[in-house]
Specification:
Blueprint (H helix, E strand, L loop, with lengths): L8 E6 L14 H16 L3 E6 L7 H6 L4 H25 L4 E5 L8 E2 L2 H9 L3 E5 L9 H11 L4 E6 L4 E2 L11 E2 L1 E2 L1 H6 L7 H9 L4 E5 L5 H6 L6 E3 L2
Parallel strand pairs: 1-2, 1-6, 2-5, 3-4, 3-5, 6-10, 9-11
Antiparallel strand pairs: 7-8, 10-11
Helix pairs in contact: 1-3, 5-7
Catalytic activity: UMP + ATP = UDP + ADP
Function: Catalyzes the reversible phosphorylation of UMP to UDP.
Main location: cytoplasm
């Protein structure tokens, strides 16, 4: 445990939509600035950070296949969207004096480095924030699964999933105000209750590697640092 934080090495998963703010598409610079500030504060408390950002604010692979397009092509386009988001957040962190590096599972050497576990390990030990872009590099896998994979590879102590709500509910609290919120769940309960937290592959990978999943609201100012201190509202998923 690092001074001031509950977990030393963190994998933070952010949805692409988290960067949209109130927009319908794209990236809101004010949101990126706020998220970068919170990550910067957490890093200064002693946490080592790996980050995976989804690409749904720009493009979703399933959207193409739903309209008759090729799913593999769509997923490749989605991977490129995650690289764009990662570059944006890395730039914001670098401007705050936090060394951030984008490592992509999809080779784009003229834009960023390619991911290797050994390279990422060296950077994290040096205190750099790593943005793992390009998902797993394979179609048909979500960025949640990619994040769980990176969390296992980097031996992270926790998988933080920043969402638009402050934990896991038995229904969408935006549509059902009396939805029940859970403080704790086991991976088995998540799968049994078919709770839409993340896909089953991601849950299983985190469970098999004994990595707790903590779901919190990234839209709540200060929530990231509070969660790292074990404070505030969140749901913990672990056996």
């Amino acid at each position: 445990m690092s001074e001031g934080v509950r977990w030393k090495r963190v994998l933070l998963k952010l949805s692409g939509e988290a960067l949209m703010g109130d927009q319908q598409f794209g990236i809101d610079p004010k949101v990126v600035e706020r998220v970068a500030e919170e990550i910067s504060e957490a890093v200064n408390l002693g946490a080592q950070f790996g980050i995976v950002v989804g690409g749904g604010n720009i493009f979703r692979g399933v959207a193409l296949s739903a309209k008759g397009g090729n799913r593999v092509t769509g997923d490749h386009m989605g991977m490129l969207a995650t690289i764009m988001n990662s570059l944006t957040l890395a730039d914001a962190l670098n401007k705050k004096g936090i060394q951030a590096r984008v490592l992509s599972a999809v080779p784009v050497p003229s834009i960023c480095e390619s991911f290797t576990q050994r390279g990422a390990e060296r950077y994290m030990e040096d205190g750099d924030v790593i943005l793992f872009a390009g998902g797993t590099g394979n179609p048909f896998f979500t960025t949640d699964s990619g994040a769980a994979l990176r969390a296992a590879e980097m031996q992270c102590n926790v998988f933080l999933k920043g969402t638009s709500v402050d934990g896991v509910y038995d229904a969408d609290p935006k549509l059902k105000p009396d939805a029940k919120r859970f403080d704790t769940l086991t991976p088995g309960e998540v799968l049994e209750k078919n709770l839409k937290v993340m896909d089953a592959a991601a849950i299983a990978l985190a469970r098999d590697n004994s990595i707790p999943v903590v779901v919190f609201s990234i839209k709540t100012s200060g929530a990231l640092v509070n969660v790292l201190r074990g404070q505030g509202l969140f749901t913990v998923i672990e056996d």
